[in-house]
Structure formats: C-alpha cells, structure tokens
Amino acid sequence: MKKNSKRNNNSRVSNIESNSVDTEKGKKESQNNFVDLLPPEVTFKIFSQLDVQSLCRASMTCRSWNHVIRNNDSLWKPHCLTLRAVCQREIDDDVESGYPWRVILLRNYQKSKVKHDWLSGRYSNICSPVSLPEKIMYPMDADTWGEILEAEMER
C-alpha cells in the first residue's frame, strides 16, 4: 500500500512539474515573439525592411508572423512597385482588377524575372529552343512577347 501511495505522489509531482514546464515554455515563446509584444506600427516597420525572399521566409516562421505578414498588404506593395519597372502593364491590370498586393506579387514575380532576362538580352544569342533553360521559363501573353520582340529588333 505504501508503494501505491508513493506512486500517486510521484505522478502528482511529475504532473505539477510538467505543467509548470509547459507554462514556462509558453511564457518564453510569447516573450520571444516580438509580433505579439510590439505595437503593430513597429512590427510593420521591422517587416518592411525585408526583401521579398526574407519576407516569405519570415512568414513561414510561425503562425503569428504568417498572419501579420500575409494580412498586411502594405508590406507587399513596395515589392510590386519594384516589379512594375519590368511588368508595368501586368501590374497595372492586376491593380485595376482589384487583386491584393500580395497576390499581385505572386502572379508576377517569376514572370518579371524571366521578362527582365529577355528584355536585357540574356537570350539574344540562343540558337534553338533546346538552349533555353526550361525550368525558369514562364508562360507569357502576346503583348509581353511583342515587347520582347521589339527589344530584340532594336538590338
């Protein structure tokens, strides 16, 4: 009987210890998460200093960061305006259609990279379609191909 009561006391002690460890762990996690502690304006200022890749990586850090980054359209707007230098028509059409800035960036990011390479002459000396890097090519509409053809004709 003493053994049994000793076990019960040990299990109670371990339950109390595990609960206090869980509470401490929760406190540490919330203390380490500046998004929950700082005013939204300060959090925005911090996240607005990140480039596109870092912003995407930060959004994968935890749920609260993802929520803040994903739902703050102002964080994505400057990056879209940077892409606009290459994809003005595409960005303007998406803005006019009412897409959020984050979605506009997702729709045009890869296209802008490929279009920039074409317009800057990276593929000017390609002898055959086999020479094109298939994995990075992006489907483009007729207007975009028209812009690329004009740039090639000017070279």
Written description of the protein model:
With 155 residues, the chain is mainly α. It has 9 helices and no strands. The chain is elongated.
SSE ordering = HHHHHHHHH
Question: Helicity, in percent?
Answer: over 70%
Largest sheet: none
Strand residue percentage = under 5%
DSSP helical segment count: 9
Rg, please?
Answer: 26 Å
Shape: elongated
Strands, count: 0
Q: What is the averaged pLDDT score?
A: 80
Residue windows where pLDDT falls under 50 for at least 5 positions: 11-23
Topology summary:
Blueprint: H1 2-32, H2 34-37, H3 40-48, H4 52-59, H5 63-70, H6 73-83, H7 88-96, H8 101-119, H9 142-154
How do you describe this structure in short?
By secondary structure, the chain is mostly helical. It is 72% helix and 0% strand. The chain has helices at residues 2-32, 34-37, 40-48, 52-59, 63-70, 73-83, 88-96, 101-119, 142-154.
Give short descriptive properties of this protein.
F-box-like_dom_sf; F-box_dom; 9 helices; 155 residues; mainly alpha; single chain
